[in-house]
Design a protein that fits this description.
The chain is mostly helical. The protein contains 14 helices and two strands. Strand 1 and strand 2 form a beta hairpin.
């Protein structure tokens, strides 16, 4: 009985190690990176810097949740940064015009859902490659930011609006950090326990077989883009609240950070593989890496090199892992 129980335990452990290899590997890499930076810079391990990291990764984290949904279907969304920017700008303009936080938030969320629906319809119904569609909408809404604002920032947002991102649970730890953590658990539950989650994985694994099984693959391919648009709007609202103003260049370049975080977390570019735990690890890894390079005085240009290198290594690891399985 003892031997049989031990064998079952070992078998279960082997399954976990195989199934979550990416998460375990990147989790270990995150711990090693964290320890190295603690040794290199005493300023890195301060409580204040830990909360700085949470602040730095918060917007990327929200966008990465939506990106995870899309990449699980085998798609990609390059417009998340632009959607964050334009929805945050619209929220700020509505707020200044009506002095209503409710209307400002509603306008941003509806716009995010509309843009997500546009992306989703083009990809799922018209079957235009997601890369092309979202690259196009990225450019459209990036330019729209400047056209709508005239190239000027929307400043002096109300104190009540700024309170959304400034309320602290305890010293340095803002309430919206906790809200984002809860959001990660909610999305994990959706992907693990709902029809939407099961069909999302199924489409990414084999869209033809999923369609033959009776699933409306057009709708279930479109849903992740709507979710991504809404979450990008949440990011835009939080960014405007956090800084008390909205600049037309907000969100520029976020696509790279989000994509890197999701891929580093083990989400496959071809779909059907990935977890929210992996995305969380990827987001934290990118945040710790960026913060550590800043604190140790590394040039911003080298930071871009580091991000690109880590992304390529993550993709290489995924390819090698898939070959071993084959």
């Amino acid at each position: 009985m003892g031997t049989e129980k031990k064998e079952k335990s070992q078998s279960k452990m082997n399954v976990i190690m195989t199934t979550h290899r990416s998460e375990i590997t990147m989790g270990g890499a995150l711990v090693i990176l964290f320890l190295i930076l603690c040794v290199l810079s005493p300023n890195f391990r301060t409580t204040r810097n830990m909360t700085n990291i949470l602040s730095q990764v918060s917007f990327t984290a929200v966008l990465a949740l939506g990106e995870t949904f899309i990449m699980l279907t085998g798609g990609i969304d390059l417009s998340v940064g632009s959607v964050l920017g334009v929805t945050g700008l619209i929220a700020a303009i509505v707020l200044k015009s009506t002095n209503s936080i409710f209307l400002a938030i509603l306008a941003a969320l509806l716009l995010g859902a509309l843009i997500g629906t546009l992306n989703g319809v083009m990809v799922s119904y018209f079957r235009i490659p997601a890369f092309v569609v979202t690259l196009g909408t990225q450019q459209i809404f990036r330019s729209a930011n400047y056209l709508i604002s005239g190239g000027h920032a929307v400043n002096k947002l109300s104190d009540a609006y700024k309170a959304i991102a400034s309320v602290e649970i305890f010293s340095g730890f803002r309430a919206y950090y906790l809200a984002i953590i809860i959001l990660f658990f909610v999305v994990h539950w959706i992907l693990s326990n709902t029809k939407l989650g099961r069909n999302t994985y199924a489409i990414g694994s084999n869209v033809v077989a999923t369609r033959l099984a009776g699933v409306n693959t057009i709708l279930y391919t479109m849903y992740p883009y709507i979710i991504s648009g809404v979450l990008a709007a949440v990011g835009g609202i939080l960014m405007g609240s956090r800084y008390g103003a909205v600049d037309p260049n907000y969100g520029d370049g976020y696509e790279m950070d989000v994509l890197a975080a999701v891929v580093i977390g083990g989400c496959s570019m071809t779909g059907g593989k990935g977890t929210i735990l992996g995305t969380a690890i990827g987001v934290l890894f990118m945040g710790v890496l960026s913060n550590g390079l800043d604190i140790t005085g590394v040039s911003p240009y080298w930071q871009g090199v580091a991000t690109g290198t880590v992304l390529i290594l993550a993709l290489l690891f995924e390819r090698i892992t898939n070959r071993e399985k084959d």
